[in-house]
Design goal:
alpha+beta, Arc Repressor Mutant, subunit A, 4-stranded antiparallel sheet, two-stranded antiparallel ribbon, elongated, disordered N terminus, WH_DNA-bd_sf, sequence-specific DNA binding
């Protein structure tokens, strides 16, 4: 898996619009991005190609519904022979052991473990939300604190400050 590189120096407003659309859903077609952003299909294709060539877009990823997954959490005494595609996370602990978060199919591997749990769901706390970069839907800057959410036309817009919130609401009223 690769991720969208979020240091965004000197990007145009159009480039930010395309990146924002891809960040929300990396499986959008050029036509869908064009419709969402109001930028022509040819220009969207050129922007994506340019951002890929410059290394700003390093690849695309899939977001899974973690609530539907069953994961296995195990404490093991050291490295074990489990295929990488089954291991979601591997934490090296200070006592030399490893805490592994794995796909449920790893249970079929019969690996030696000290502790083992099966998880039927996941909930993220505020700290995890803060690790996800968001871009202001009005000015295009990266939102570094909790975003202000503006609801309009069955969509959520994220803004970085009260000024952007005011200006976005004003613009959305004009478009209605």
């Amino acid at each position: 898996m690769r991720y969208l590189h979020m240091t965004l120096p000197n990007l145009s407003k159009r480039e930010l619009l395309v990146l924002r659309a891809l960040y929300r859903n990396s499986r959008l077609s050029i036509e869908e991005i064009s419709g969402e952003t109001g930028i022509s299909r040819n220009t969207v294709a050129q922007i994506i190609k340019k951002l890929e060539n410059e290394g700003t877009i390093q690849g695309y990823t899939v977001r899974m519904n973690d609530d539907k997954l069953e994961t296995v959490i195990a404490v093991v005494n050291g490295p074990i022979d489990i295929p990488d595609h089954m291991v979601y996370e591997d934490y090296s602990l200070s006592n030399g052991k490893h805490l592994l978060v794995m796909d449920r199919s790893a249970l079929s591997m019969n690996f030696p473990y000290e502790y083992l749990w099966v998880s039927t769901g996941r909930r993220y706390g505020k700290a995890m939300e803060a690790r996800t970069a968001r871009i202001c839907d009005y000015c295009g800057k990266i939102i570094v604190s909790d975003p202000i959410i503006v609801h309009s036309h069955n969509r959520d817009y994220y803004v970085c400050c009260p000024n952007c919130e005011h200006d976005l609401k004003k613009r959305l009223k004009m478009e209605s």
